[in-house]
Amino acid sequence: MIPGKDTKVGKSEAPKENKYGTFALFDIEHFLRRILKNWYWFAFMFLIGYAISWAYSKYYAQNVYASDLSLSISNNTSSYFSPNQSINFIWGQGGNQDGVYLKKMLLSRSHNEYLVKELDLFVNYSTKGLIKSTYLDKDDSPVFFEIDRKHLQQVNYPITLRPKGNGTYEVVLPEEGQATSLYSYEVEGFQNINAYNRPANKIIRVNEWYNSPNLRFKLVQNPVTPSIKLDNIIINLTTINQSVNDIVSTISVNFDKEISTIMIINKRGYNLNSTVNFLNKSVAELQKKRLEDKNTVNKNTTVYLQGSLDEIRKRLDSAATVLNYLKTSEKLYNIKDRDEKSLETIKDLEAKKADIVSKVNSLNTIRNTLQSQNFDKMIATNAAGFEDGMFSASVSELKALYTKRSELATIYKPNSEPMKEINRMINDAKASSFNSLKNYYTKYYNEINKIDQKVADANSDLQSYPEKERKYLDAERGYNMIEATYSSLLNRQNEARLNVATNQSDISVIDPAKNLGQGPVSPNIKMAKAGIISLMLLIPILFILIGELLDNKIRNIKELLSVTKIPLLGVIGNNNSENMLTVLEQPKSSVSEAFRGIRANMRFLMNNEDEKGKVILVTSSVGGEGKTYVSINLASVLGLSDKKTILLGMDLRKPKIFGDFKIDNKYGISNYLTGEVGIDQIINHTKIPNLDVATSGPIPPNPSELLMSERNVKFIQELKEIYDFIIIDSPPVGLVADSYEIMKYSDANIYVVRHEYTEKYMVKLITEKYHNNEIEHLGLIYNDYNTKQGYGYGYGYGYGYGYGYGYFDEDKNYKEPLLIRIRNKMQTMFNKK
């Protein structure tokens, strides 16, 4: 039984819903073979990718560096601008509240804006080589770029400085790009000016002002001579807002996992020295500012308490005078039967009340300072008897918002959206501050009311004293209350003075930022190279994949048989010669042997194979698939086997057979079917004794009618009486339906499929007809199979043609492909016993 041969029973029992002729969209095996076949493209693209990645890493990649600074935060601060309690209520954090606040400060706009303005960080230095630009630290430049902040400046406008020797530099501006919208560093906004011509290049000396409509600056000599000699220095100015945003986006702050009061600050940038200098300067400025804020508040508190003490001192002196008068004039200093217990209780209560009253007075001072927006006169909250991180933070925020509103007022109108937004934020901060104060007012007044109630209860025990004695006791109580207030204020003043004397910054640097020659943290050059090379390698894969998806050619014998379920008669190799008479010209070739195998397999298609006059029809989907080649050589191999055979050229539209046999095509089947000539006139003998040929003849105007005529049927029947085999080279079924009519009279039908030529969809029609029993005795021939595919590719053992190469004389120079030789060698090794 030949491969794929369905028995009559099996075919009739196949379920009707089975769909035949549908190929897989993607052939992974052929895809992989195409990749191997096109290996040189991958090698070429690999080299291209490597060259691109090398050029990228050397000339285009901007290295990003990072430096770290670690510091410790103490917990003894009491400033509005460094709160240490309840800060978690603001930012939802617990534990290290000082650290959380400090982190916010380091990342805040106000702190970084201060640094940008103070350190001129809006001036960016770089230098450009032949291809690549390199970012510089300010100290890497031989001169510093100093602008006139009162003059309008053009930002994002590269200014090139070229050293000319003896402290002179040529200022080179871009050929175009001068703007009329210039930036003011005073108001931090843009202003328009009239159009102007491009400023000419100019040579200036150090400390000489450069003037143009869009720039005003001078160069200041760097006191330290840089180690690198630069051919050019490129200056690029940015706005304050842009500089602040750029800096904040490159800073990260984290806390040590084991000790939460240790903070690690990281700064990234294109220049390592710049990141190091920025971190050290940033923390130094923050230490300085924090200490100044703390001292300012404590000094204000000391001054406030001194004023309160002076006032209380006067009241205390007056109370002492009254008390002494009563003692001397009224002789009331020795009252008999004094209720010392009640008097002591009243004295303690009134001392507490005096302390609370002084706190309320301090609270009033804080409230009035907030209302007047005079934050420089703010006193410490501990003067009012409390420390509240939420309140301190809201005051700090309110101060910053008022400052910002003053800046915006110089740019925007009062009813503009930015002003409305800043006013809304100020109202929210004020509401938060006053709500905190309101809670303390309520607390203190409740305590005063409780003390007054207790004092009233104690006074009821003193009602029995005479009026004069009660008068003395009231004076004594007033004196004691003022004295208690004075003592309380004095203690707070001493505490404030001690804070001023011993104040230190609550930030101490553990490890400053240093340039230790750290390598860049990004980009990852290795990953970039791998990505570029991978991308280049994907290009040929993509092209092959697209080609594979768009390719609808039949390339796989196994898939062809599994889809069609039509028996395979044999596989024919590639015919390298221009002559189609392979069996006659090269009888000892593997291709000739393949046709002999087909001759042997045909008997499985035909019933009653011993009968004479077997009609074998050869067709295909379209022209060019080799049906004529198969017809000629199949007829030749039958004729050589002593079988009387005739080859009929019934492809009347495209006659071919006569050329290879060198037969005159003046008269042929078309002439016979029209009745012009007799049968003897169209039968031609060949050099093979048992092989005759009837060519197509001239192309008729009505080939279909002739092939389907009764005369053609009688013609075939007459030939069956004369010949053992009648081979019909019929028209392709994918173009015309003539062959289907002739198949009614054939004993076997051969359908030729050409490797990498026949479209998959073309075999669908013949497959459906076969499984619908419209065509019987059908077999496939796989033609023009590529020898480089190798032994048994796509199907199985023995049904390729490759097994014969090297055995036959004509194939003695054939050399198997490398992959096939490797595979055979491995099979030999593993099959050894």
From TrEMBL:
One of its GO terms (cellular component) is plasma membrane. InterPro entries: AAA_dom, Bact_polysacc_biosynth/exp, P-loop_NTPase, Wzc-like_C. SUPFAM superfamilies: P-loop containing nucleoside triphosphate hydrolases. GO terms for molecular function: ATP binding; identical protein binding; non-membrane spanning protein tyrosine kinase activity. It catalyses: L-tyrosyl-[protein] + ATP = O-phospho-L-tyrosyl-[protein] + ADP + H(+). The keyword Transmembrane applies. Keywords: ATP-binding, Kinase, Membrane, Nucleotide-binding, Transferase, Transmembrane, Transmembrane helix, Tyrosine-protein kinase. Belongs to the etk/wzc family. Its EC number is 2.7.10.2. It comes from Chryseobacterium contaminans. The chain crosses the membrane at residues 39-57, 530-550. Residues 614-757 form the AAA domain. It is an enzyme of class 2 (transferase). This is non-specific protein-tyrosine kinase.
